[in-house]
Amino acid sequence: MTTWYDEAFRPGSEIKGKWNGRVYVVERLLGAGSNGIVALVRRGSARFALKAGYETVDHQSEINSLLAISLKDNSFKNFLIDADDMIVQGKGISFYVMRYIEGVTLSDFIHKRGQDWIYVIGSNLLRKLTEIHKSGYVFGDLKAENMIVSNYGDVDLIDFGGVTSKGRAIKQLTEVYDRGFWSMGERVAEESYDLFSFAILLLKSLDHRKRFTGFIKTLPQNRELDHLTAIMKENPVAAQLAPFLNKALHGEFRTSEEASIYWRKLLAGKKVAYSTLKLPWLKICFAASLFICGATIYVFWG
């Protein structure tokens, strides 16, 4: 059966804002979730990600929260490009346009680059969460599918449907990342809620045995943190992070800023070998230093 978005998001079709009048040409679909559909679009030579919502009220709430975050002086500044309505089959559909970021999934990045990259990725993700939290919001539905990773472990969040004002009930979640699923806290928008999801995200990305699929099928009374502790013990990288992960799972961090400080101190104390990471810029810097050194010697002795 053909849906409204099959027509609206057909490659080559145009999306015109009802109020602002801006026109976007669809290149391809990027994905569809429970609360909307996202497409790669272009306007002139610039490319953006455009998200159209299924429910106008929920989508407008998402736009409002994203606008509030993007107005702050942080990495989300000017993240929101446009917000408008499109007319499809005589019906108004709310949409917003945001920056488009090239990247890959967390699992693909880890598979290609190695698990040691989780130290850099985790640090960058904590920074993103801290910026959202300082804006008065909680991300809510933090999971691997809602983020992408680019070349040097940079992290971008790509689905803001779960963003919730602090103190309110979490409006969108994914069970295995949810502390309520593990009976470890309420589904309230607190910084500790995101930090619990953050710990699950890391453990899930490091678990070679793919046990989280099985956890979803277990009865509530059989969901124990011992299952997660087993992953920490079996995986060398997770074992390094165990002190942090345990605190995050038990809600012992008051803020994400506090968690970030602990993360940095933990890795410094463990003397994590960042030199093992395959960073091309290290080779570039080394080559550049040799060139400068050679040039200096030439000038001095020439």
Give the SSE string: HEEEEHEEHHEEEEHHHHHH
Q: CA-to-CA gap between the ends?
A: 78 Å
Number of domains: 2
CATH-defined architecture of the largest domain: Orthogonal Bundle
**What's the arrangement of strands in the largest beta sheet?**
1-2-3-4-6-5
Count the helices. How many? 10
User: What's the shape?
Assistant: globular
User: What structural category arises from helix and sheet content?
Assistant: alpha+beta
Question: Strand count, sense and closure of the main sheet?
Answer: 6 strands, antiparallel
- Poorly predicted regions are 280-302
Q: Quote the CATH topology of the largest domain.
A: Transferase(Phosphotransferase), domain 1
Report on the structure:
With 302 residues, the chain is of the alpha+beta class. It has two domains: 96 residues, 2-Layer Sandwich (Phosphorylase Kinase, domain 1), CATH 3.30.200; 171 residues, Transferase(Phosphotransferase), domain 1. The chain is built from ten helices and ten strands. Strands 1-2-3-4-6-5 form a six-stranded antiparallel sheet. Helix 4 packs antiparallel against helix 9, helix 5 packs antiparallel against helix 8 and helix 8 packs antiparallel against helix 9. The protein is globular and about 55 Å long. The chain starts with a helix and ends with a helix. The C terminus is likely disordered.
Quick structural overview:
The chain crosses the membrane at residues 281-301. This protein is an alpha+beta fold. 42% of the residues lie in helices and 19% in strands.
What is this structure's SSE topology?
Elements: H1 4-8, E1 14-16, E2 23-32, E3 36-43, E4 46-53, H2 56-70, E5 80-88, E6 91-99, H3 106-113, H4 118-134, E7 137-138, E8 147-149, E9 155-157, E10 164-165, H5 191-206, H6 212-216, H7 225-234, H8 236-249, H9 256-270, H10 280-301
Antiparallel strand pairs: 1-2, 2-3, 3-4, 4-6, 5-6, 7-10, 8-9
Helix pairs in contact: 4-5, 4-9, 5-8, 7-8, 8-9
Transmembrane segments: 281-301
Domain Protein kinase: 24-282
Binding site for ATP: 51
